[in-house]
Design a protein that fits this description.
- This protein has one helix at residues 7-24; strands at 5-6, 31-33, 37-47, 55-59, 71-80, 91-93.
- By secondary structure, the protein is α+β, with helices and mostly antiparallel strands.
- The chain has a four-stranded antiparallel beta sheet. Strands 2-6 form a two-stranded antiparallel sheet.
- The longest helix has 18 residues, at 7-24.
- The model has no long low-confidence stretch (mean pLDDT 78).
Length: 101
């Protein structure tokens, strides 16, 4: 099936990108607070066969699909609220070409 990206791995990747944006924007003059995150994915769902009962989810790439006869593709929409470990709002920044005076 090519490279499968698990749902948990995709969300970890999003979390890592947001953490990087927070760190990049720490001392910026212009910052943005994330109110909510809407994450829309195409996922394949497959019956797990290798030693684990249950279902397995992975993100479908733009050029691929579910090739296994036991996998079906679904749309998954998650509404996430970003917060720090302390429960504060997540703030990221855009680096302007010129800082305001």
């Amino acid at each position: 099936m090519g490279t499968e990206i698990g749902l948990a791995r995709a969300i970890r990747g999003l979390r890592a990108e947001l953490a990087e944006a927070m760190a990049d924007g720490e001392d910026e003059a212009i910052r943005f607070r994330i109110e909510s995150i809407s994450l829309d994915l195409q996922v394949a769902v497959e019956n797990a066969r290798e030693g684990h009962a249950g279902l397995r989810f992975w993100v479908v790439s733009a050029d691929g699909g579910a090739s296994s006869s036991t996998a079906t593709t679904h749309s998954l929409s998650l509404q996430l609220a970003a917060e720090t470990a302390a429960g504060d709002h997540v703030r990221i920044a855009a680096t302007p070409e010129r800082r305001p005076d």
